[in-house]
Design goal:
Layout (H helix, E strand, L loop, with lengths): L10 H10 L21 E6 L7 E5 L4 E2 L5 E2 L4 E7 L15 E8 L7 E7 L6 E7 L5 E8 L5 E6 L5 E5 L6 E4 L8 E2 L8 E6 L5 E5 L2 E3 L1 E8 L2 E11 L5 E2 L1 E4 L20 E2 L1 E7 L2 E6 L4 E6 L4 E7 L8 E7 L4 E6 L5 E5 L5 E6 L8 E6 L5 E6 L3 E2 L4 E2 L2 E6 L2 H5 L2
Parallel strand pairs: 2-29
Antiparallel strand pairs: 1-2, 3-4, 4-29, 5-34, 6-7, 7-8, 8-9, 10-11, 11-12, 12-13, 14-15, 15-17, 16-21, 17-18, 18-20, 19-25, 22-23, 23-24, 24-25, 26-27, 27-28, 28-29, 30-31, 31-34, 32-33
């Protein structure tokens, strides 16, 4: 991150399409009965403290270097979707630099097709790119769906099929974007003016938000009309401790004209650099990079706890996060560390999905699956591009036996 300067349809397939489109109000996941081959081998038990699980296990498999410079698990392959400063396929659109948060959405006009939306964390020339895919994965079009914004970092998909793009600087706002580009991007002032990172809509219809600052807040926005973010109530998590029940307190001035939002309520709970966030049903997860934690919040009980504390396992510099609704597995991206994308299963067992070697100046961003759940997207935000090796970023797609790997 940067500072302020800079055939019949199966039940499983229905769940995967619904979840990947941002339909996060599904409280329970029903999958087809199957017994997938377990990942192998399990090697290390790692003691943790202050988490919802007392131990975690790390699964290690050999990774092999592929032609695109990624280290992948056996049976998985990658392709380059877009690179900073280069044309996206044959669409005529030049891909902006520094791809960050991302999500996919079903194509309403082409059954089986989808859109991939990507933020660009660039000062003053940021924004959002939308790439259109045919059912067979062919890229058919690309367009900018949000312009004139700055440092578009992470965000989140909504159940009504839009993308929330957050600007990561002290005067940052959230922009609601139509993946198809048919409706112009709209600023949502009610979601607050602060250093926005991620956004996620939970089963209660509220938008949960993270603030990427030392001492940053954990927020929620309740729309006056469900599904309409033009007006509503912004609150911040407060209380005597970050571990246990959370009290939500109204932010007096979401526009932060005189006082930053996180400082307007004395009992605000401070977090050590809140980063990516996602939700499924009543469960909300977010990361904090400073103390390297994955947090878990329950909407129904309002309880907050540490889901995962990094230690001797593969996870290190936690950042962007994405939940696979069909398996409840979390995909956690590293900003630094070994430049890995790591899966964290419901039992807190973890495994490296992909490693990006020899790119120490980059970070892993924007993990998400296509609506069918068989193609994983992510970016190396400042991957070297072209003969000169300009550090402007690359977006990748990974295919392979995802159903078996995740136990869907």
């Amino acid at each position: 991150m940067f500072d302020d300067l800079g055939a019949p349809v199966s039940r499983r397939r229905v769940i995967r399409w619904t979840g990947a489109a941002g339909m996060l109000g599904v409280a329970a996941v029903v999958t087809e009965a199957c017994t997938p081959a377990p990942p192998a081998p399990t090697t290390t038990t790692v003691p943790t403290t202050g988490t919802s699980s007392t131990t975690t296990t790390t699964t290690t498999v050999p990774l092999a270097l592929d032609p695109n410079g990624l280290l992948l698990m056996p049976g998985f392959t990658s392709r380059v979707v877009a690179q900073g400063g280069q044309e996206v396929a044959a669409t005529g659109l030049t891909y902006r630099w520094y791809p960050d948060g991302a999500a996919t959405f079903p194509d309403p006009e082409v059954p089986g097709g989808w859109y991939l939306v990507e933020n660009h964390e660039i000062g003053s020339t940021g924004g959002v790119t939308s790439i259109r895919f045919a059912p067979d994965g062919t890229i058919t079009a690309a367009a900018s769906i949000c312009d004139g914004t700055s440092l578009n970092c992470a965000g989140g998909a909504t159940p009504w099929g839009t993308w929330l793009s957050g600007e990561e600087f002290s005067g940052g706002k959230v922009w609601e974007c139509d993946p198809t580009g048919n409706v112009p991007a709209q600023v949502r002032d009610g979601l607050g003016v602060f250093t926005h990172e991620g956004a996620a809509v939970a089963a209660d219809g509220r938008v949960y938000l993270t603030e990427d600052k030392q001492g940053g807040g954990f927020y929620r926005f309740t729309p006056t009309t469900p599904g309409d973010l033009s007006d509503g109530l912004l609150e911040i998590a407060t209380g005597p401790t970050r571990f246990g029940p959370v009290t939500w307190t109204e932010v007096p001035d979401p526009s932060a004209q005189t006082t930053p939002t996180r400082l307007q309520v004395p009992s605000t709970l401070p977090f050590d650099g809140p980063e990516g966030i996602d939700a499924s049903g009543d469960d909300v997860w977010f990361t904090s990079k400073g103390d390297r934690r994955v947090w878990h919040y329950r909407v129904d009980t309002q309880l907050l706890e540490v889901r995962y504390q990094t230690g001797d396992g593969p996870l290190d510099a936690v950042d962007n996060i994405w939940v696979d609704p069909a398996s409840a597995a979390l995909f956690v991206a590293e900003d630094g560390g070994n430049m890995e994308l790591v899966v964290l299963r419901p039992d807190n067992s973890s495994q490296v999905v992909v490693r990006v070697p020899d790119q120490p100046d980059s970070e892993v961003t924007g993990p998400c699956f296509n609506p069918a759940g068989d193609r994983l997207y992510f970016s190396s935000q400042r991957a070297p591009v072209g003969a000169a090796g300009a550090l402007v970023g690359t977006t990748f797609e990974i295919t392979g036996p995802w159903d078996e790997f995740l136990g869907r």
